[in-house]
Design brief:
alpha/beta; eight-stranded mixed beta sheet; seven-stranded parallel beta sheet; Rossmann fold; Alpha-Beta Plaits; 18 strands; globular; 420 residues
Length: 420
């Protein structure tokens, strides 16, 4: 069980996290720590042979986090053990790393009127996007539209006025599917911005309104980059502090839904942030993970303050590489999903990542009709309306079952009394 999360630590209650010997998912020469009252950062840094990288106030966790680099030869675990007994330290942990949860995109066979695929552009600013329109393509049908009955659902709700944040890799906000849907862009990384396949696919699953059909096409997208990776690859990695910075930005921009399509180790800082989101009435949706049936629980999916989503195919069969476990809330389409790619392209996407994005879109629809809903209320609507799959009742493979967007929305709609 993680340490208690209520508020910042106090002297004598050091909440230092020393990773297990077989845990390698962290930046080996970086440390995150919190100071006890009246302690001086410079003194602590000198004591442990560390150099300040940055200091950031994390309001969701109610604390200030110092990110520092250890000098060559210092062992992170040894430093953390020492910090656990240091009265100047209120808490310390590694800067954990997380991976996006999507298979490598499979290209779509399309016909296009002219032009060859462009090499992904390298942009210095997230707002600088391609303006050359992509040629119209004849795309394969989207099975997700029928599976979730989006044609009927969108007659009732389209996510209007709801802001949904995607904490991910770089989104190509100039893609035809996303034009006019982006309310804000944030980059937590100190490097050149590169539109990335994963972030672009998640964004389109939510708000696409071109040739594709997103689950919540009228919602407003907040695209926050906290993950870095090659533009042509589905993989990218992010760290605890970058993720928290992106989430904090989204909170400041008025997000009601936070999509977290990544997975990794349990993280005290991230867990405190997620508890803060719930306290503010925001809904976090996370990928269950692509570790496979025998894998250990992955986070933030296994955190109690998120809705954990696994992936199913067009026939409601489980995605073979999806995690299993009691933390799985429910399932959503996430295998061979037609998705947007940078530079106006399209590809088939598979994994619990895009399944989570579909659920985030459905949450936006529910909030349009019921803005008063909190995490428990949303979770209840989703699970009670889900289509039971696998073993009868809730199970560790499908959770409560596959989402039924129409049924969930029907449960959320206010009951109107009929006149006599």
């Amino acid at each position: 069980m993680p340490p208690a999360l209520g508020g910042p630590p106090t002297p004598g209650q050091s909440r230092t996290v020393v990773p297990a010997a077989d845990e390698t998912r962290f930046v080996p020469d970086e440390i995150l720590f919190e100071l006890a009252p009246d302690a001086q950062a410079e003194t602590v840094l000198q004591r442990y042979g560390a150099t300040l990288i940055t200091s950031r106030r994390v309001e969701l966790a109610g604390t200030t986090i110092i990110r520092a680099k250890l000098e060559a030869g210092r062992d992170l675990r040894s430093v953390l053990v020492q910090m656990a007994g240091d009265n100047a330290i209120a808490g310390a942990q590694p800067n954990f790393t997380y991976e996006l949860q999507q298979e490598r995109p499979r290209p779509v066979s399309t016909t296009a009127s002219g032009g060859r695929p462009d090499v992904p552009a390298r942009l210095s600013d997230p707002a600088a996007v391609r303006t050359t329109p992509a040629p119209r393509r004849d795309l394969p049908p989207q099975y997700v539209v029928d599976k979730l009955r989006l044609g009927d659902v969108h007659k009732l709700a389209r996510g209007a006025s709801i802001r949904v944040a995607v904490i991910d890799s770089g989104v190509d906000i100039g893609h035809p599917e996303l034009r006019g849907a982006v309310a804000g862009v944030y980059d937590a990384l100190d490097e050149d911005f590169v539109p990335h396949s994963h972030g672009t696919a998640m964004a389109a699953a939510l708000v696409a309104q071109g040739q594709l059909q997103g689950v919540a096409p009228a919602s407003r997208l907040l695209a926050a980059r906290a993950f870095s990776g090659r533009a042509s690859s589905a993989s990218a990695s992010g760290t605890s502090l970058h993720i928290m910075a992106a989430i904090e930005w989204a909170v400041g921009q008025g997000a009601r839904v936070i999509n977290l399509s990544f997975a990794g180790p349990q993280d005290r800082l991230l867990s405190r942030g997620l508890a803060g989101l719930t306290a503010k009435g925001m809904i976090a949706v996370a990928a269950a993970g692509n570790g496979g049936p025998r894998a250990a629980a992955l986070y933030p999916g296994a955190d109690p303050n998120v809705i954990a989503v696994t992936a199913t195919d067009a026939d409601d069969r489980i995605f073979p590489r999806a995690n299993r476990g009691g933390y799985i809330t429910l399932a959503a389409p996430g295998v061979d999903v037609l998705a947007a790619e940078p530079q106006g392209r399209y590809a088939f996407s598979s994994g619990t990542s895009i399944a989570a994005a579909h659920v985030s879109g459905l949450v936006a629809l529910l909030l349009e009709k019921r803005p008063d809903l909190d995490l428990d209320g949303v979770r209840r609507l989703l699970t009670e309306s889900a289509i039971d799959l696998g073993s009868r009742g809730r199970d560790p493979v499908y959770g409560a079952g596959r989402i039924d967007a129409a049924a969930a929305l029907a449960r959320a709609m206010p009951v109107t009394a009929s006149r006599p």
